[in-house]
Amino acid sequence: MDNQKDLGLGKLTLFAVSTTLASGVFSLSGDFAAGGAHTLAVLLGWLICGIGMLGLAICFYRLSVVRPELSSGIFNYAKAGFGDYIGFINGWGYWISAILAPVSYVALLFATLGHFFDAFGEGNNMLSVIVGSIYVWFLIYLVYRGVNSAVGINAVVVIAKLVPILFSIIAIILAGAFKMENFMANFAGDGSMTLIEQIKSTTTVTVWTFIGIEGAVVLSARAKNTKIAGQATIYSFISLLVLYFIISVLSMGAMPYEELAQLSNPPMAGVMEYVVGPWGGVLVNCAVILSVAGAMLSYVILCTDSAYQPAVNKLFPKFLGKLNKYGAPTWAVIGTGIILQFFIIMLHVNDSSYQALYALSTSTIMFPYLFSALFYLKLVIQGHGCDNGAGGITVAWIAAIIGSIYGFWLLYATEINYVLAATLCYAPGTLLYLWAKKERGEKVFATKTDIIACIVVIVVAIYCVVQISNGNMQVF
After folding, report:
1. Of the residues 8, 104, 127, 364, which has the fewest C-beta atoms closer than 10 A?
2. Among the listed residues 214, 210, 211, the one whose alpha carbon sits nearest the alpha carbon of residue 58
3. Predicted confidence band at 157 (pLDDT cuts at 50, 70, 90)?
4. Rounded mean pLDDT, 44-57
C-alpha cells in the first residue's frame, strides 16, 4: 500500500480522535436526559465507561506490544484467540459497525443542515439521501486515490473542528450559565426509573462517543510500529474522556433537565442557544457540520481497512485485498461504498433517526470489543500478557479483567433488540466466510467452537427475522 508503515504517533492519535470525536460530543447531555438519566446516573455512567473503556484501551495497547504480528487488531485478536469463524464474525461485525456510523452521520448532518435549509427536513428525506450519497461517493473517491494521503487530510480537519467545541465550553463558563440548582435538581431521579435503569440508559450514549477509539489499532499495519498504535489509543482516550465529562457536567448545569430532554438534534446547539442566544446555536450547528463531514472521511478510511485487512489475513475473499495503482484496496473501497449506499437508502425507507442508527452501530461493535478483551485475558492467564516490556503483571491482570467485565456489561446494559439486530447483521456475512474458505481450499470449520458459533448466529438471526415479520421488532 502507499507509503505503508509511515504513520507516526501524531497522525494516528489525531486519526483516533477524529473517528471518535464526531457527532456524539454534540448530543451527550440531550441524549442522556431523553433516555431518562439524571445527574447521579450520568456521573456513574461516565465512571463505569471511563474505567471500562480505559481497561479496553489498555488491552488494545498491550496486545499491540505482546502480539505485534497481529497488526490491524480487532478481528485478528478474535481469530488468534478463538478460531477463524469467530475472528471472521468480529471482522465482519466491525466492518458493519464502521459503515453504520457514517450512515448515522448522514442523518445528523442533514438534520443539522435542516436548521438552515428546510428542504433537508429531519435529515432522512429523499433530498438528504441524494446529497448524502453524492458526498459519500466523493469520500470514496478520495480514499480510492490513496488511504494514507486521506489520513493526512484528516489530521487538518480534526484540529479545525476542535476550536468551536472548546469555544462552547468556554462560553458556558464565562457566561456564568452553570447553575448548581439545575445540576442538583432530582439528583438521583424522579422515581420513574430506578438508578440502575438510568445508568443502563447511558451505556449506548457513552460507548457511542468512544466508537473509533480503536481506529489507531485498526490502522496499525500502516504505523511505524504497532506500539505507536497502542500509545495513540491511550492518548486519544484520556483526552476525549476529560472533554466529554466536562461537556456533560456543564450542560446539566446550564439547563433544566426537562428542557435538555426536549432538545432536537444536535442538543448542544440548543444548550448554546439557551446560554448565549441564537448565534450560539448557529455556531454549534456549523461545528457539527464540519465535525461530522470530517468524521465521515475518517470512517470511510476505517471501513476500507476493515474490509482490506481481513482479506489479507485470509478471512475475507481475496478480491477485497486487491490494490489499485494508488496503493488503495479497490474492491474494499467500492464494497464499502455499495454497502454504505444501501444503508443510506434504508435510512429514508425506514424513516430512521440518528439515535436509532448509532444505537445499532454501537451494538454491532460490542462483540469485537468483548472478544479483544477476552483474548488479552486468555494471554494473561497463559502468562504471555506482559512480554516484550509491556509492563507489570498486576496492571495486566487488572486491565484484562476490567476490559472483559466491561465487555459483558455492555451486552447486559444495551437494549436487547439492538443486540439481536447486531446478530442479524452478522448472519449474511457467513456467505463471505464460506467463499473465502472455498477459494483457499481450507476446511470451513476447523474447530467445534466455530461450528457452535455459526449455529448460534444463524439461529438468532432466524429468530430476529420472525420477530420482525410479526411486527415485534424493528431493526432501524
Report:
1. 8
2. 214
3. low
4. 92
Q: CA–CA distance from 50 to each of 32, 207, 247, 345, 392 (Å)?
A: 16, 10, 15, 35, 21
Domains of the chain by residue range: 9-415
For residue 7, give the amino acid letter.
Answer: L
Enter the C-alpha cell of residue 171. Answer: 462560553
Q: Classify 383 in phi/psi space as left (phi over 0), alpha (psi -120 to 50) or beta.
A: left
Among the listed residues 361, 43, 320, 326, the one whose alpha carbon sits nearest the alpha carbon of residue 212:
361
What residues contact 88, with CB distance under 8 A and at least 6 apart? 75, 79, 310, 315, 316, 429, 432, 433, 436
Residue 5 has pLDDT above 90, yes or no: no
H or E segment to which residue 450 belongs: helix 448-469
Interatomic CA distance for residues 417 and 10, integer angstroms = 39
d(CA 143, CA 137): 10
Residues 6 or more apart in contact with residue 475 via CB below 8 angstroms = 350, 360, 421, 424, 464, 468
What length is written for the chain?
A: 476
Burial 274-283 (b: 16+ CB within 10 A, else e): bbbeeebbeb
Show the cell assigned to 328: 488503495
Residue 391, pLDDT above cutoff 60: no
CA distance 113 to 123: 8
User: 419-456: per-residue pLDDT in tens?
Assistant: 787 788 888 889 999 998 988 888 888 888 899 999 99
Query: Could you tell me where the DSSP H helices lie in 211-262?
Result: 215-218, 226-254, 257-261
Do 297 and 151 form a contact (C-beta atoms < 8 A)? Answer: no
The DSSP code sequence of 153-177 is HHHHHHHHHHHHHHHHHHHHHHTT-
d(CA 183, CA 409): 27
pTM of the model: 0.83
Helix (H, G, I), strand (E, B) or coil at 223: strand
- SS3 of 82-141: HCHHHHHHHHHHHHHHHHHHHHHHHHHHHHHHCCCCHHHCCCCCHHHHHHHHHHHHHHHH
* Model pLDDT, residue 444: 87
> All 3 cell numbers of residue 132?
448524502
